[in-house]
Write a structure and sequence with these properties.
alpha+beta, 5-stranded antiparallel beta sheet, 9-stranded mixed beta sheet, globular, 6 helices, 281 residues
Length: 281
Amino acid sequence: MRSASHFRDQAKWGAAVLRSFPAARQLAEYDGVPVAELEDAFGSPLLAFSELPSTQDAAHILGAEGAPSGTVVVAERQSAGRGRQGKQWQSGTPSGVWVTRLDRPDGREALGVLSLRLGLMLAAGLEPFADSPVMLKWPNDIHLASGKLAGILVEARWRDERPEWVAAGVGVNVSRPQGDTSGIAGCLRDLTSRSEVLRVVVAALAEAVGGGAVLASWEMEAWAARDMAAGARCVAPMEGIVLGISADGALRLQDADGVERTARAGSLQLVNDHSTRENRR
């Protein structure tokens, strides 16, 4: 049974988000499942909203308000979901899972590979719901043969050169977004429930944040098996042929002179690849 303090905390954190986004409504159910039932499954607080500009924005509000590590924010819709390099993406009807987990790690060690480790865990967790193998694209994209399925965004707020909190967000297309005519959006098998996918995503978020500073050998092998870009020619973040990734999260490339180079930031754009036009989170 939940204590009175639990309900007070839920009301407090919900009110903090609603002060910034008064058009939102806090929900008692998500995809037909009571929030309390999902909290029991996650072992952590869950705040569900009808619509937010971005679950990332809400998580940062909660971080500043002192919400505990492990707090999860989910929205039925996003009006200004954020991707890398400030790109925005809107979700209309509830066609996907838009979720961010707030964590307060002891140090910064795992942040450099967090999006890669999270991608690996999500690929394995989502594959049972997919009609084709789930592939990965450095640094934060998850793809099916039909197109981009999901995106990851990790943001930290710092104090005294240490992360005060980390907001790790994931957006997954469970069904094809309404009005999508791009032909480059992937989605999961028909009748997959968003609550099932949410459970997979939150479990991956919780596990990934506790990983080490570099990818283990088995993680490197698992990434290589799902790497959709290996051997392909790219034009960004620099021109070359993609060789793979390094254990500390960098992209490995071979330039025109045959020299191996690494990139630690930017978006990977392959020759004749148009998937970068859309950003799922």
